[in-house]
Structure formats: C-alpha cells, structure tokens
Amino acid sequence: MLCGCLADRLKQLVCVWFGSGVSGLSRLVTAAMATQTVTYRAASHAGSWYTANGPALARELTQWLNATGIPRPGAAAAAGNGSAPACSVPDGRLRAIIAPHAGYAYSGPVAAYAYACIDPSAYDRVVVLGPSHHVYMPGCAVSTAATLRTPIGDLVTDDVAVAQLRATGLFSAFEPAADEAEHSIEMHLPYLAHVFGARRSAIRVTCVVVGSLSTEAEATYGAAMAPLLLDSPRTLTVVSSDFCHWGRRFRYTRLGDPPPPAGLARHAAIEAMDREGMALIERQDVPGWAAYLKRTGNTICGRHPIGVLLRAVEAWQGGGAGQASDAATAGGTANGNELPVGRGTLRTRFLKYAQSSPVVSSADSSVSYASGVTMLVEGNASDDG
Question: Measuring CA to CA, which residue among 160, 166, 161, 159 is closest to residue 140?
C-alpha cells in the first residue's frame, strides 16, 4: 500500500501529465516511487571547496555579488524588505546562465556575474545541468534526493520534473554516493539558496548530471529537455562548466589550432582559445561548437551540458539555431548574437572571464572560468547592453 505522502505526490504528477494515458501514468508511478528512496543530498564539499559556516558563506557571496557592479534584480525582495533595480546586463528576461563550479576561492567571484542577474521573484523552477567528473555515463542521470542541503539553507527537489524526465526512459537515477561525490552541481546550490533567499523554500530544483554524450545524444537530450527548460518563463536553467584546464596535470598543453602567433604569452593564447569557444556559444552555433571542440580538444569540462543547452535552444526555436553562425541580425555584435524566433529573441552574452593563475611556463597550470547569460527579448531589440 502506498504511503500517504507518495499518494499525494502521485496526484500532483497526474495533474501535470496531460494526455499521458495509462501507460504514461504507470511510468510516472515508477518514477515517483524512485524519488522516495533518498531523503537528502548532503553538502559534501562544504568545509573544503567552500566554507561550511552559513552566515560567513552568505557574507562572502554577497560581497562577490556586490563587487560585480550589476544591479541585482529583486535583491532586497529576496531578503524580504522591498525591491531593487532590474538587471540591465544585457536587457531581457533571463532564461539561462552558464557559470563555473571550482572551489569558491577560485570561481566564486566569476560565478557572481551570472547570479547577480537573477530576479528571485521571477522563477518557480530551476534546472541545473552539470558534467559528471567521477562516473562514466553515455547518457544523463537525475538526482533523486528530496532535499538539497547547503550551509545557507535547504533547497527542495522538483520531484514532478524528475518523474517526468525518468518517465522518458532517457534519464537514470544518479546513485546517492556518486551524487554527493560530484561537485559540478553542488557548487551552484549555495548560490541558488542565497540568491533566492526568503523564496528558496518555494523554488523547485532539478539536478541533471550530463554524461559523455555524443553529438547525436546531445541533440536527443536537448530536444527532450527543451520544453522543461524553455517553455515556461518561470524556469531558470543553470549550466555548470569551467573552461580550459591547462597543464601537464590535466594532460593538456595545446595553445589553440592553429597555433598562436610567436611571442604571445601562454595565458593569452589560452584565453584566445577559450573566447573562440565562448563566441560560438554566444552565436548558439551548434555545428561550430562541435567542430571547435574536435579541432582544439579544449578541456571544457561542461562541454556536454553546454551542448545540451544549445540543442535545447535549437529544438525550441524550430531547428534553426545551428545555422546561425553567419546569420546574425542587425542587432548582433561580437559580444552577442540575436536569434529571431516566433516566441522572441534569445541572446547569449558572456559577462566575465578569468583564469585561476596566468600560465607563463610549460610547468604552470591553470583553469579558466566564465559566466554568461541567455536572455529572452521580445521583438528585435538593439544590442545596447
């Protein structure tokens, strides 16, 4: 006999699964039962990758957010005492962010540029896509923990979305020990808990771990996730990725393809290579992104989550984004490109780039970090951000 909480959960699932029929309901029952197996995901990297002291962590995140100089939309509202000016970098409704996931001492200030643009009053649902660092997977998996713990406060898993994804047959359940060992998603949870503030208990979060996908699989998962990620303006997508991991310890010492001009510093060549990839993401150039990764081999650990987002955008826009490389509208610039679609214009822009340390010699190493935003703009707005 089903327990009361599970029965209530099933009623909720049935209400949102329109037209699924008996077979669809059966899949949802199975998926919903799976979500009951794990109570919470511990903040396993607290105390090492970031401080486990909640008030100290909140102060640190606030400091980094303020240091961006970006007016924080709804920042005061998140604290429960009013409102703040709207985010203006760039204009539009925020639909997705790309931000790093290294230890906060390295990547926290860069991630702040993406998180500073979040209006906590504008969303009910967050979907986090992160790469798998420790477990090989040819597909994707979802966390089934009911609660996501952070030193700042707990977040609640979106078990409706988890059940819907599981019901497709494309998403496995991420094993709890592997879930807690994986840092790519966890490093975003304290930022989300902090930015949403007083509303954090009302937000439902879905954590998707993206495996080593082929380009074909990226297209499959992107199409499958496009409705969840992009149909509702009250859903925010978070893509977790660092950029180039350079040095012998990463088994990557290339400096671009073709090689950089003679005399160019190694760290400048690494940045140029990263920015080439960032420009392709800004143009939402699906084939260009795949070709760039194959040509350079750049060690962007979140390349597959980025690929899934690009494919979701392509599917949501009707398949036209992949040919957008040379089809920028009059408003597009080198800093971002507009893709006119029936539902509005999606604009992607990177706001911040940094490296953990400047590579000077072949004995050095570094990791690159970048933060970007994808905005939905009504009509054909000019690029004045």
Answer: 166
Do 255 and 331 belong together in one domain?
A: yes
Q: Are residues 22 and 96 in the same domain?
A: no
**Could you report the per-residue pLDDT of 98-114, keeping only the tens digit for each?**
999 999 999 999 999 99
Tell whether 15 and 162 lie within a shared domain: no
Where would I find the H helices in the chain? 4-16, 21-34, 54-67, 75-78, 104-115, 159-167, 176-181, 183-186, 189-196, 215-226, 266-282, 286-296, 303-316
* C-alpha–C-alpha distance, residues 84 and 154, integer Å: 24
Owner of token pair 């208990």 = 201
Token duo for residue 54: 């909640």
What are the residues whose beta carbons fall under 8 Å from the beta carbon of 62, sequence distance 6 or more?
Answer: 194
CB atoms within 10 A of CB 133: 13
Give pLDDT tens digits for 261-301.
Answer: 888 999 999 999 999 999 999 999 999 999 999 999 999 99
Contact 270, 184 (CB under 8 A): no
